Amino acid sequence: MTFDVLEILEEEGFVEDGEDNMVYAEKAFFAARVLKWIRGQVQTDPDFDLATYLTMLAHYREDMADLEFSEDEDEILYHLKEPDQEAQELVESLIRSASKTMSEKISSDPTITDKTPTNAEEIAGPTNAEVPIDS
Asked: Is 126 domain-assigned?
């Protein structure tokens, strides 16, 4: 399988054709460097988190984040431009993912029945119960 950086950059919107034979590629050269770096990491590190770096590159393309290489170019530094918005989206995504995972576990677990407690009060008891205090 060949790795055609220009084709990937065009498909992902880093390179756009304009009028009069003009090509808009403001972020394409840096993105090409990042793609080559990612490719090297994938080939040498079996635990490399490809999805995270592709997400970072997409954020860079959409101008949501800045990317740069470290001095020795062994790391990519990522800085969100509006971290509050990104954090909110991340939290919402995690909540959706956790809810889906939990409902899948519940539906596939034969030990969970209609009589299995499902909320905190059923599991721990009423929260307003009086607890004696030794004096």
From this structure: no
In-domain check, residue 89: yes
Q: What is the chain's Cα-based Rg? A: 24
Asked whether 42 and 9 are in contact (CB, 8 A), the reply is: no
16 within 8 A of 23, measured Cβ to Cβ? yes
Question: What is the count of structural domains for the chain?
Answer: 1
Where does the pLDDT of residue 105 fall: very low under 50, low under 70, confident under 90, or very high at 90 and above? low
Residue whose pair of structure tokens reads 């956790």 in the numeric block: 98
Do 106 and 112 touch, CB atoms closer than 8 A? yes
The tens digit of pLDDT for each residue in 30-43 reads 888 998 999 999 99
- pLDDT at res. 37: 92
Strand-pairing partners, residue 67, are 78
Q: Does 73 map to a domain? A: yes
Contact 103, 89 (CB under 8 A): no
Domain of 54 in residue numbering reads as 5-97
